[in-house]
Amino acid sequence: MSDERMDDEPRHLPGDAPGDAVERVLRHRLSRRRFLIRTAQITLAAGAVGIGVAGWLAQQRPSPWNPAKFAPLGRSRVAVLTASGYGIDLEARVRDALTLLNVDVAHRSILLKPNIVEFDPRAAINTDPRLVAATVAAMRSMGASSVTVGEGSGHRRDTQYIASRSGLLDLLRDVDAPFVDLNTAPVRRVTLDSQFTRLGELWLPTPILDADLVVSMPKLKTHHWGGVTLSLKNCFGMVPSRIYGWPKNVLHWAGLNGSILDVAAAVRPGLAIVDGIVGMQGNGPIQGDPVNAGVIIVGTDPVAVDSTAALLMEIDPERVEYLFDAGRFLGQLHPELIDQVGEDLGPLATPFALLPQFAALRIGALPSPSAAKSDPGA
Amino acid sequence: MASASDAAALLAHFRQPDGGFGPSAQAPSEPEPTALAALALDDERARAWLLDQQGDDGSWLMGPASVGNDAATSWAALAVDGIAREHALDYLVAHRAVQAGADDRVPHDIATRGWSWTPSIFGWVEPTSRATLVLKLLRPAATPEIADGIAVLADRECVDGGWNYGNRRVLEVDLPPFLQTSAAGLMAVHDGPADLRARGVATVERLWRDEQGGLGWAMGVVALRLSGEAVTGHADELARLIDDTRLLDDTVALAWATLALGEGWQQLRVGR
Q1: Which residues of B touch A199 (CB under 8 A)?
Q2: Which pLDDT belongs to residue A59?
Q3: By 3-state DSSP, what share of chain A in percent is helix, strand and coil, each rounded to 5?
Q4: Would you list the DSSP string of B113-163?
């Protein structure tokens, strides 16, 4: 395991287009052969200037968030660890990551939020319950006062079915950890600190609001409406469906990207652990194909974690609309300002297949005039 | 093995001091669990809570002002009576979902509406099913609205029958049905159309074994009973699941289990 600080990297340069910074980081992190291909793509990407202009224009927009409520962005640190499968000592891996990041969970109440949006035994939809149980054990061994696991499935109302059939309930029983259905838990009203939608407020489960540390534990997946679904999008599962409906359609009608931002900014997970051991590519988050990516990505800044996870899928995080906006106020998006520890990202990077409408998200891709249409809301 | 009275006792244990029921043990009273508990337990205190909470427009609303989930209004209409019921039915008739525009990524019949979880958005299977069923039961003269509800269910029916939350096909991929939502849909069509009912029954039977969960199984037993199907084995399995898990103390699931294992389900039978 190498501690890869990127102190020798080129820094952000005046006039950089967002994609330039990504390419510069990848130049250091990807193999030479792969980088030559990327360089050729960038050379062809005359439209990259257009992306830079679009990014600059976005920065000039009024800020739909209360600056007093969000700390200024600084450098972030993200740990990337290899994991060849779910049979290895995952508890040790999680503990390694938390140690690398100096995360102190002692005497804190922890709420782990995996992604159990649906279940299909043939698909890699869910955060693997073995990683969830291992995280429970790791947190406890590091002194957490309590560890609870919660999910509010967006598609399935029968929580008992989905939590048991996915294997989660059995494994939590083995480690004696409680499960809370976030779709039926008590709720409290929260006024939003950001206004990317007109929601204004959310009713959120008290187990989320009362936890000392909320841990977003997504699956590493592409997403058919948002491009990618990672630790920020995983926060949708913290919104109770008994109010917002199955499939939480209010959030889609309010605008998928804006809702992701408003919900994540309301919840503000203090830690993200991405299950990239087996991810999903293509028509995610349900119908895609599995990818053996063999990684766990961990960090205290969920935006930085999602940015790193996108890079790992060879997706430009700055081209994912909601990630770009998240990087303006919620966390660090820019790879040159994210200190990566653990494994070298380059050899681990895997080009996750994208639906055609998201082809422009690929690192080095030409901007597409037929870029992804907005979420249909249905 | 748990009986209807055992399920009822478990459910009654979760009554809140105000007479209503929350969705889980620690949650304060809300319209949907209270309405279902009122039906399952034939409970006057739950009905009193509902009457106290009914809005001036006839609905039972919960959630933020910008959202306002009114989907419990159907069950609450069934649980109360008199003017309160009529007022609620007026609300249901007047507050269907909006018609969404055509979108080939998520194809659907744009002429249909149905009912949604929250006002002013797209209709979905479960709220459409319950509103359609309740109108059939209590206001059969609302024929355009009932026909629309059935049309939504026909339009959203999965390729091999049954329903998921409400998308038959997304991005050219046919989506599978779920047991719980198939049971909800089947309840609404248990008196017909016959083809929807037949495929709904087949789907609930097909998914039963693989989708073991309190809510799906309890609603499945009710839906099969309403459709005239034999449920002895299913009811026994549900009873054992209650013994083993208390259905995770989910009050909505316990209310459905009480209806399923006793005679309460007959309140949902059209033309009884």
Answers
A1: 64, 66-67
A2: 63
A3: 40, 20, 40
A4: ----SSTTS---HHHHHHHHHHHHHH-TT-HHHHHHHHHHHHHH--TTS-B
CA-CA-CA-CA torsion sign (B149, B150, B152, B156): positive
Average pLDDT for A130-158: 98
Task: List residues in chain A touching B: CB distance below 8 A.
Answer: 120, 155-162, 164-165, 181, 183-187, 189, 198-203, 224, 242-247, 249-250, 253, 283, 286-287, 355, 373, 376-378
Q: Which of the four pLDDT bands, split at 50, 70 and 90, describes residue A15?
A: very low
Q: What does each C-alpha distance from A337 to A21, A307, A332 come to in angstroms?
A: 10, 11, 7
pTM, two decimals, is 0.91
Q: What is the pLDDT of residues B64-84, one digit of tens each?
A: 888 899 999 999 999 999 999
| Distance between CA atoms of residues B53 and A159, nearest Å | 27
End-to-end Cα spacing for chain B: 29
Distances (CA, A) of A154 to A344, B105, B172, B176: 34, 20, 21, 15
CB-based contact, B212 to chain A, within 8 Å: yes
Q: Cβ contact (<8 Å) for A160 and B178?
A: no
Residue A320: count other Cβ atoms within 10 Å of its Cβ. 26
- Range A19-37 average pLDDT: 44
B22/A250 Cβ within 8 A: no
Q: Across the interface, do A244 and B100 touch by the CB < 8 Å criterion?
A: no
Contact between chains at B26 and A185 (C-beta distance less than 8 A):
yes
* β partners of residue A113: A216
pLDDT at A53: 59
Mutation target among B14, B32, B34, B69 for the A interface, most CBs of A within 10 A? B69
Residue B100 pLDDT: 84
